[in-house]
From TrEMBL:
Statement: the UniProt record of this protein carries the keyword Transmembrane: no
Key words, A-Z: DNA-binding, Transcription, Transcription regulation
Region annotation Disordered: where it falls in the sequence: 1-31
One Pfam family matching this protein: TetR_C_43
This protein's name: TetR family transcriptional regulator
Matching SUPFAM superfamilies: Homeodomain-like (SSF46689), Tetracyclin repressor-like, C-terminal domain (SSF48498)
Ranges where the HTH tetR-type domain occurs: 34-93
Organism encoding this protein: Streptomyces pactum
Stretches with biased composition (Basic and acidic residues): 1-12, 22-31
């Protein structure tokens, strides 16, 4: 289990090549083209977190160390770049949980790895961009989102079956708490809170362990609850 006093492994240890869903696969480009694409996505992720999704793409190109034409050759518009950043971040967080499960067989440790890597990837700052930037139902985005949701639900079910996770929490509970504890919205000084994030996430994760010390009010929050309009 990650300790609040011990740094959590960097998400780079779990990094996988972007564009992993089937819908984003194309004929394999040259190695230098792949490196350029990865640099663009990494630079865009950093700048979207720091400044929000409206950051000039010329600035993204400068940080990535590539020309403007290279950015537009890979991503014809801003929506395509934002979508790739969000999808690649979700891919990496899912992969982190999969690796933890494969390495240890411990479902709760896999859950912890997912939460801490999600924070490192700034997923709670990036995902809100989806609703305001482009089609939420784009097949690439839905494939990445479904993979994460399916994996987290499976890991939580396994942890409950093993008696590690309290039974009165749902996937929605985990998603809400992790998002609220990990990052404020992009472009609002979120990097200044880094020194507190993993400490507070671990306090939350310890509270999920079974046996529960107190009954929770209400019922477990599901993903369907999160998608339901507030007035329903």
């Amino acid at each position: 289990m990650p300790s609040p006093d011990r740094p959590v492994k960097s998400s780079e240890e779990y990094a996988v090549q972007t564009a992993t869903p089937e819908q984003r696969k194309v004929a394999r480009p040259r190695a230098d083209a792949l490196r350029n694409r990865e640099r663009i996505v990494t630079a865009a992720r950093e700048m979207f977190v720091e400044h929000g999704p409206d950051v000039p793409l010329d600035d993204v190109a400068r940080r990535a160390g590539v020309g403007n034409a290279t950015v537009y050759r890979n991503f014809p518009d801003r929506d395509a770049l934002v979508r790739e950043v969000v999808c690649s971040v979700m891919d990496r967080t899912a992969r982190a949980a999969e690796l933890a499960l494969a390495e240890t067989g411990d479902a709760f440790e896999a859950l912890e790895r997912f939460v801490h890597v999600s924070a490192d990837e700034r997923i709670s700052a990036l995902c809100p961009m989806v609703s305001s930037t482009f089609d939420q139902h784009h097949p690439d985005l839905e494939a990445a989102r479904e993979r994460v949701e399916r994996l987290v639900a499976e890991v939580m079910d396994r942890a409950k079956a093993a008696g590690q996770l309290r039974t009165d929490v749902g996937v929605g509970d985990l998603m809400i708490a992790a998002a609220q504890l990990s990052r404020p919205p992009a472009g609002t000084g979120c990097l200044s809170a880094d020194r507190f994030v993993h400490r507070h996430l671990q306090l939350f994760l310890d509270g999920l362990r079974a046996p529960a010390r107190a009954d929770l009010p209400g019922t477990a929050v599901t993903l369907e609850d999160l998608r339901r309009p507030c007035d329903q």
